[in-house]
Amino acid sequence: xxxxxxxxxxxxxxxxxxxxxxxxxxxxxxxxxxxxxxxxxxxxxxxxxxxxxxxxxxxxxxxxxxxxxxxxxxxxxxxxxxxxxxxxxxxxxxxxxxxxxxxxxxxxxxxxxxxxxxxxxxxxxxxxxxxxxxxxxxxxxxxxxxxxxxxxxxxxxxxxxxxxxxxxxxxxxxxxxxxxxxxxxxxxxxxxxxxxxxxxxxxxxxxxxxxxxxxxxxxxxxxxxxxxxxxxxxxxxxxxxxxxxxxxxxxxxxxxxxxxxxxxxxxxxxxxxxxxxxxxxxxxxxxxxxxxxxxxxxxxxxxxxxxxxxxxxxxxxxxxxxxxxxx
Length: 327
Known about the structure:
By secondary structure, the protein is α+β, with helices and mostly antiparallel strands. It has one domain (21-325): Vanillyl-alcohol Oxidase, Chain A, domain 3 (3-Layer(aba) Sandwich), CATH 3.40.462. Helix content is 41%, strand content 27%. Strands 1, 2, 3, 4, 5, 6, 7, 8, 9, 10, 11, 12, 13 and 14 form a 14-stranded antiparallel sheet that branches.
């Protein structure tokens, strides 16, 4: 056997070993979580179609006014999709928030993506977070499942990693979901409203102030990915053909943005009032944010499940707009 064939055989063995390290979910759990398998040691989720996700926790206090710089650096250095989920609760005295960063990697197999993730984490920690002074740490499978359980039930209870491998667990968390009218729903003992952003014309840096002054549980999702070169060229050609020139804000660094906001309240009356006030608030801030219609359950579950259950409603945005939306 020549050297090249020996290398190929060794590589094939390593790829198979990496694939065997994945624990596959039951058919019902796959459907509930939108996840095919999980690597329990590395805390990586395989979501099918050569897509892998890993979730990190970001400490909001360290982000401060660096959100735009952080977004710009991520999209300058990487091609993958990023999602920030802010889970915030205002109990009438102060707003407490936990922010998660879900990163979606594309790769042919787990052996390849494991190296991609290691390189991403090296650059993230050594070159980005250390420079900006931002604290980001990987979440274990147990951490993720514990927060998903808390988001859905309001009960902080430690959940073991085997929870995701069993049958019907995710569906049980959402068995109390009932759709009311468009954009309104009930989940277990809470009443909720769901919104998605269509367009942002003004400064988004103050858009989260509402959460600091109104009681409730909020789940804010900022999901974005850089345009590929061909996509960007096609978009610019479309703009030129329709309007003759490009908007200076839109020309550099085009990003696909999905913005979701879910609000949970203890009573139906509070939910209806907060929905009315939010719509008026978004209008004042020149933000075209409207209720999710028809896919309420998908949008809400995606938000509360930290992006493991996928949902996208993509619109064009700049780094500044996206940075301002972060809590």
